[in-house]
Write a structure and sequence with these properties.
Layout (H helix, E strand, L loop, with lengths): L1 E7 L2 E7 L7 H9 L9 E6 L6 E7 L4 E2 L3 H13 L9 E6 L2 E10 L2 E8 L25 E7 L2 E9 L3 E6 L9 H9 L9 E9 L2 E8 L3 E3 L3 H13 L6 E6 L2 E6 L7 E4 L2 E7 L5
Parallel strand pairs: 2-3, 4-6, 11-12, 13-15
Antiparallel strand pairs: 1-2, 1-18, 3-4, 4-5, 6-7, 7-8, 8-17, 9-10, 10-11, 12-13, 13-14, 15-16, 16-17
Length: 285
């Protein structure tokens, strides 16, 4: 089974081309993503045929759960699709079928290879039922971003809730994000009782000049070096609070991502994507 290891700002993936919809991909993702006994990655990306777009993408987290959206993974799989010659040479726009709809991506090339991908990540959603979160409010009446306090290990966290296909809870801090105890608090926020489908947790700090530093605890993967949909959620929450303008740079441990949002409509995510290495996994596909 041939695979390609890829990464986008340190968020790393194992990519497989396949037509197989019967394989137990969750079980395989757990084995392949193991950093000691497998290849090692945050998730498994599948490139499948599609009758709605140029191709279909599925993503399985390192714990075997299937994610609905992934900005960094989308950039990586688009780069692979173009660099492998699966797209027409003159094509700059690629369409990707995901669990949350068809997404469009625009590629930037250098010496014939993709060096940057801009992805439309869809519109942010704010209703309680769309995230989902159980907070005692009518799920259909909440029209603006929900901000709710939770207490975790005696620490009060004011969470800003945004769905970017995946559910996100963003916490703004005044201290460097490197000082935040994400390893201990991240899983407790992820599994908090108010989030029936768990949640991705971002801790962010404003740096000024349209820049924000952030770290993410991803449901199903733990802390990652970057999270594309998480960066979108941070940018949206920051803009709704009036902290930043329509364009913002999110600095994550694995690198910087560029976000654009006009206050309504789709959020756009731009950043690098790189191929790390290729190999072959034992077993039949």
């Amino acid at each position: 089974m041939k695979f390609t290891k890829m990464q986008g700002t340190g968020n790393d993936f194992i990519l497989l081309e396949t037509k197989d919809t019967r394989q137990n991909w969750s079980k395989l993702a757990i084995a392949m993503c193991d950093r000691h006994f497998g290849i090692g990655a945050d998730g498994l990306l599948l490139l499948l045929p599609s009758d709605k777009a140029d191709f279909q993408m599925r993503i399985f987290n390192s714990d075997g759960s299937e994610a609905d959206a992934c900005g960094n993974g989308t950039r990586c799989i688009v780069k692979y699709f173009v660099d492998a010659g699966l797209a027409a040479k003159a094509t700059a726009e690629i369409t990707v079928e995901t669990r949350t709809g068809v997404r469009k991506a625009v590629v930037t090339k250098k010496a014939g290879k993709v060096i940057k991908v801009k992805v439309g990540m869809g519109e942010p959603k704010f209703k309680a039922g769309e995230i989902p979160v159980v907070i005692g409010q009518d799920a259909n009446k909440v029209q603006s971003m929900i901000t709710c306090p939770v207490n975790v290990d005696g620490k009060k966290l004011e969470l800003n809730l945004v769905s970017m296909g995946n559910p996100h809870a963003v916490y703004f801090t005044k201290e460097p994000v490197s000082d935040f105890p994400l390893a201990s608090l991240g899983p407790k926020v992820e599994h908090h009782k108010i989030f029936p489908d768990r949640v991705n947790f971002e801790v962010a700090r404003l740096l000024g000049d349209g820049q924000i530093e952030a770290r993410t605890w991803e449901r199903g993967a733990g802390e990652t070096l970057a999270c594309g949909s998480g960066a979108c959620a941070v940018a949206v929450a920051a803009q709704l609070h009036g902290y930043v303008g329509h364009k913002v740079t999110i600095k994550e441990p694995g690198g910087a991502l560029e976000l654009e949002w006009g206050g309504a409509g789709e959020v756009f995510l731009s950043g690098p994507a790189e191929t790390v290495f290729t190999g072959e996994w034992p077993g039949k596909q």
